[in-house]
Design brief:
- The chain is α+β, with helices and mostly antiparallel strands and about 260 residues long.
- It has one domain.
- It is about 25% helix and about 35% strand.
- The N and C termini lie far apart (about 45 Å).
């Protein structure tokens, strides 16, 4: 299948049938392309071949399942990232096209908090990876991932929701969720702290180790600092939160 990613046609092929759902589900946020592909990602039975912008990488051996997510996100980030655009490990919820960007480490509770917002009338626009864009001194979601809302069963977000352009008015960094836990909020307005705390959610797809082969993927760190410097200049509050999910929403004024 061929997908259009930031004006680039990427052909994706897979020879390992049990990975079809994972691989193509990850690309399902992008529109299909009918252009002639000059970029490709091939999951073959004994190796992975990637060629982006005339730079090719070959990972020898059958791809390990835990590497698929990192490889795909690395490829997408390499095609998207620049001074004003960034693929960020995050979740987006919104109401009336005004959104909140939820970040946190793996397993920290982003999906749990998003579903709590959904119970209060919000919609989920990105389940795991978000294409963010800075334009006219504002931050927007351009596309959101649809795959992985439910970890036990494959559940895709509605395509219409993930393709909405959402204006981000608040960034919530989860420090820890705990039912009945004491809620704490820390506003973070220090430019350098914001950049340091958000960087890991932009560059993880390059920094995580790949087990399929002892090779590095595409370097997606090039634009992270300058993008976050631009983001830190925007008037978007960044809140570090911990505690009970329902009480967190109450503190945010969500009823």
């Amino acid at each position: 299948m061929k997908f259009s990613i930031n004006g680039t046609c990427l052909e994706v092929r897979n020879e390992i049938d049990e990975y079809n759902e994972i691989i193509f589900g990850r690309f399902s946020q992008f529109e299909l392309s009918y252009d002639k592909p000059y970029n490709f990602l091939y999951f073959k039975k004994d190796k992975v071949e990637i060629c982006l912008k005339d730079k090719c990488i070959v990972l020898n051996n059958k791809v390990i399942k835990t590497d698929i997510y990192t490889i795909i996100c690395n490829v997408i980030a390499y095609l998207i990232d620049d001074e004003k655009n960034m693929l960020m490990h995050s979740v987006v919820v919104s109401k009336d096209n005004i959104g909140k960007l939820i970040i946190g480490n793996f397993g920290q509770g982003k999906t749990t908090l998003a579903k709590t917002f959904e119970e209060k009338g919000y919609e989920i626009n990105s389940t795991d990876q978000t294409w963010l864009q800075i334009k006219d001194n504002k931050l927007y979601q351009i596309l959101g991932s649809r795959f992985g809302l439910n970890k036990e069963n494959t559940e895709l977000l509605d395509f219409y929701n993930s393709n909405k352009k959402i204006k981000i008015e608040q960034i919530i960094r989860i420090v820890g969720l705990c039912d009945e836990g004491i809620v704490t909020f820390n506003g973070n307005n220090n430019k350098y702290h914001i950049i340091k705390n958000l960087a890991q959610f932009c560059n993880w797809n390059y920094n995580l180790p790949i087990f399929t082969d002892n090779l590095y993927l595409y370097d997606t760190n090039k634009y992270v600092k300058i993008f976050l410097e631009n983001l830190s200049e925007l008037e978007i509050p960044v809140l570090d939160v911990r505690g009970d999910k329902n009480k967190i929403l109450e503190e945010l004024g969500v009823r």
